[in-house]
Amino acid sequence: MIYPKKSPFFERLLTRFVHHQLKKHFYRVHYQEAYSPPKGEATLFIVNHSNWWDGLVLFYINAVKIKHDSYAMMSEEGMKSFSFFKKIGAFSVNPTSPKHVLKSLQFAKKLLGDKKSVWIFPQGQEEHQEKRPLTFASGTSYLVDQVQSVRVIPVSFYYTYHHDQRPELYVYTGNPISFHPNETRAELTSTMASKLTDQLDEVKSFVIEEKNTGYETIVSGYKTISEWLTWWKGRGKK
Predict the structure, then answer these.
(1) pTM above 0.90, yes or no
(2) Less Cβ around it within 10 Å: N or C end of the chain?
C-alpha cells in the first residue's frame, strides 16, 4: 500500500498549477454547496467518477472552498503513474486484491477516527457520467458501519458544454446523508448510491435548463477564440 506523505508547500504549488490548468481547459467552473461541512469532524465525501479530471478537481475544491485536512483513496495503478498524489493526501487501493482493499479501508477508518476527512469515488472506476444507476462498491458502507459518528457528504461533478469553445464544470456539495437505524451494509450502499444518483440528476437538470442561480463561478477560463475575434473586431471599429 502507498501511504500519503503530505507536503503543505507542494499543496500550495499544486493549487496554483491546477487553477491555471482549469482556466486553460474549461470556460467556467461553478460551485454550490447546500451544506458547509465543519472542520474537525469525521467526514466522508463520496463523489461520482467519470473522467481523468476528477482527482485534480477534488483536490482543488477542497483547497479553495471546503478547506479540510483531507485524504483521498486512489487506485494503486494511478498512484504509481502519478506519485505526486501522495504529497496531497492520496493513499492507494488495489481493487483486484481483497486483502489490499481491506488494508486501505482500515487506513481510511483510522483517518476518520482521527477526525480527518476522506474522499472516495465509490464507483471504484471511471464510468460515463450519464450511466444509470450509479453502482457502488461496498467499501463506503464498511466505513459508515465501522465509524458510527461519520458524516457522509455527497458531491456531484457534472461536465458539460454550453455555448462556448471549452466545457464547463458544475460542482455541487449536498446535505449529509441520513440513514435509517440498523441498516445492513447492502442497504447503506444502496442509500448512498441512490442519494448521489438523485443529486447528480438534479445538477444535470439544472444545467440543461440553463438556470443561473445558486452557483458561484470559482474559475473563469482564459479568453476563447470567439472572444478574441469579437475583441479584435471591436478594436478594428475604433
Answers:
(1) yes
(2) C
Give the three cell numbers for residue 13.
504549488
3-state helix/strand/coil string of 20-75:
HHHHHHCCEEEEEECCCCCCCCCEEEEECCCCCCHHHHHHHHHHHHHCCCEEEEEE
Closest CA to 122 of 142, 138, 145, 143: 138
Q: Residue 89 burial by CB count (10 A; 0-12/13-18/19+): exposed, middle or buried?
A: buried
Task: State the first-to-last Cα distance of the chain, in angstroms, to the nearest integer.
Answer: 63
Q: How far is CA 114 from the centre of its chain?
A: 21
Average pLDDT value for the chain: 93
**pLDDT computed for residue 234 by the predictor:** 73
Q: Which of 99, 121, 89, 69 is nearest to 1 (CA)?
A: 99
Maximum alpha-carbon separation in the chain: 72
